[in-house]
């Protein structure tokens, strides 16, 4: 399974808050907090070696938050800055998409007009050293982190290339690299849209991709669109709403509900379908989470699209990012989101209209397992959650010819196959009463 190292957003729908007033704790709570102070002082003064006090406090805070649910956490200043970079959709780097193979970083492709491409890095190159440090032993995220950095700073890469008789040393100067949130292509007479993550750039990238597809295929020849949300871990809530709205003329997209009923928020679509009402199939699997599920759920409930694939991850919670000044930020679960029918997918996921399994290749059998929100320790129990749980195997073949789910969608759009769930009947849209 290819892992795009440029994917930035985590599996969250994110709201940013400048600050939320907190209620004062009771007297008994402050007495309990005094115990924490006593324990901290004992550790600081008597532990066998001098502890890192800042790390102690950070771990204590994270311990408190992790007892709530798997998605609430404390981010130190660096982590908070990384989060902002990811959701902004750009970073300081060299512009290559990579994966891990044989314990080395393999270049999938250099992005056009980036430092990596201009320096001569080629698809298929293996990076063995980063600034003189061996890549072997590193996990992919750690290797990617080493290649990112401040703009206008140099990085030295040692490359192993097929056909070269010795390693190649290349020095590249980092630049601002925009993360492509949407990839698109034309599959004969069908427009294919793959949303990789939900960053600040997602809607704009989607709109540009649709315009490009329309320019390539005449309207009378275009059979419809495939919106691929597989392996999409989520991201910004507002972008999920904009992406849903891109295909809708009306209707509620999603609602968020916190513990105070008066804080319920509803988000509605505005007129204007960018695809002019062309048939739409949405692909999901166990790697489709949070913001992806908002889009799939809205288009499914409002009968704008047929959802095809396997059950999605089932993360139906909203995290608010609360800045803590120079100390970092608090990522706190503050609400659950609900599809237009009033259904929470927390712990259940989106069940496709048409279930199509994607078989694993022989080399991955037994190595890739189904994962979902319902399997996470300490997850918030969903109102509709059952023993069946959520999630499924998250795998997409690197070659389109091997992609059974995609090819099933293409056959349906072209009329080569029929299914009662396609096309959906908008008159049977499920809306909350």
How does this structure look, described?
It contains nine helices and 21 strands. It is globular, with a radius of gyration of 23 Å. The longest helix is centred in the N-terminal third of the chain and has 20 residues, at 27-46. Helix 7 (237-245) runs parallel beside helix 8. Strands 1, 2, 14, 15, 16, 19 and 20 form a seven-stranded mixed sheet that branches. The protein starts with 12 loop residues before the first strand and ends in a 19-residue tail after the last helix. With 433 residues, the chain is an alpha/beta fold. The protein has helices at residues 27-46, 53-66, 77-88, 115-118, 140-147, 202-216, 237-245, 291-301, 404-414, and strands spanning 13-16, 73-75, 90-93, 96-101, 104-110, 126-130, 133-134, 154-160, 168-173, 175-178, 182-187, 190-195, 224-228, 235-236, 252-257, 265-268, 280-284, 306-309, 317-323, 329-338, 354-355. It folds into two domains: 91-178, Roll (Pdz3 Domain); 182-428, 2-enoyl-CoA Hydratase, Chain A, domain 1 (Alpha-Beta Complex). Mean pLDDT is 89; it is low at 1-12. 24% of the residues lie in helices and 24% in strands.
The helix count comes to 9
How far from one another are the termini? 42 Å
Largest β-sheet summary? 7 strands, mixed
Task: Give the H and E element order.
Answer: EHHEHEEEHEEHEEEEEHEEHEEEHEEEEH
Q: CATH H-level name of the largest domain... which superfamily?
A: 2-enoyl-CoA Hydratase, Chain A, domain 1
Could you name the CATH class of the largest domain? Alpha Beta
CATH fold-level label of the largest domain: 2-enoyl-CoA Hydratase, Chain A, domain 1
Helix content: 10-25%
Average pLDDT works out at 89
Shape by Cα distribution: globular
Structural class: alpha/beta
**Low-pLDDT runs:** 1-12
* Total individual domains: 2
* Integer-rounded radius of gyration: 23 Å
What percent of residues are in strands? 15-25%
Per DSSP E runs of 2 or more residues, the count of β-strands stands at 21
The CATH architecture of the largest domain is Alpha-Beta Complex
């Amino acid at each position: 399974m290819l892992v795009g190292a440029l994917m930035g957003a985590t599996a969250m729908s994110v709201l940013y808050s400048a600050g939320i007033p907190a209620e004062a704790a009771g007297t008994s709570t402050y007495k309990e907090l005094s115990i924490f102070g006593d324990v901290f002082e004992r550790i600081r003064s008597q532990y066998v070696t001098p502890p890192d006090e800042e790390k102690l406090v950070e771990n204590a805070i994270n311990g408190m938050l992790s007892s709530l649910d798997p998605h609430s956490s404390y981010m130190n200043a660096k982590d908070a800055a990384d989060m902002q970079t990811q959701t902004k959709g750009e970073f300081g780097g060299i512009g290559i998409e990579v994966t891990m193979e044989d314990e080395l970083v393999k270049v999938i492709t250099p992005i056009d007009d980036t430092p990596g491409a201009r320096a001569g890095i080629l698809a298929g190159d293996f990076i063995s050293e980063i600034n003189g440090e061996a890549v072997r032993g590193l996990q992919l995220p750690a290797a990617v982190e080493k290649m990112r950095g401040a703009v206008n700073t140099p990085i030295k890469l040692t490359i192993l290339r097929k056909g070269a008789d010795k390693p190649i040393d290349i020095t590249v100067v980092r630049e601002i690299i925009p993360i492509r949130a949407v990839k698109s292509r034309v599959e004969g007479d069908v427009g294919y849209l793959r949303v990789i993550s939900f960053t600040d750039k997602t809607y704009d990238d989607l709109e540009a991709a649709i315009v490009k597809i329309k320019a390539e295929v005449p309207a009378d020849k275009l059979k419809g669109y495939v919106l691929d949300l597989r392996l999409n871990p989520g991201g910004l809530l507002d972008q999920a709403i904009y992406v849903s709205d891109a295909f809708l003329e009306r209707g509620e997209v999603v609602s968020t509900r916190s513990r105070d009923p008066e804080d319920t928020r509803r988000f509605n679509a505005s007129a204007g379908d960018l695809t002019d009402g062309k048939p739409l199939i949405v692909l999901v699997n166990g790697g489709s989470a949070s913001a992806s599920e908002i889009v799939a759920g809205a288009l499914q409930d409002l009968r704008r699209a047929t959802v095809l694939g396997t059950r999605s991850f089932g993360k139906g919670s909203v995290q608010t990012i609360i800045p803590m000044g120079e100390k970092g930020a608090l990522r706190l679960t503050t609400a659950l989101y609900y599809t237009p029918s009033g259904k929470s997918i927390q712990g259940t996921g989106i069940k496709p209209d048409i279930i199509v399994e994607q078989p694993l290749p022989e080399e991955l059998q037994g190595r890739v397992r189904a994962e979902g929100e319902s399997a996470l320790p300490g997850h918030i129990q969903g109102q509709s959650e059952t023993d069946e749980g959520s999630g499924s195997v998250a795998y997409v073949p690197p070659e389109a010819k091997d992609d059974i789910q995609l090819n099933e969608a293409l056959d349906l759009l072209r009329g080569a196959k029929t299914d009662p769930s396609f096309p959906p009947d908008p008159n049977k849209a499920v809306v909350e009463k």
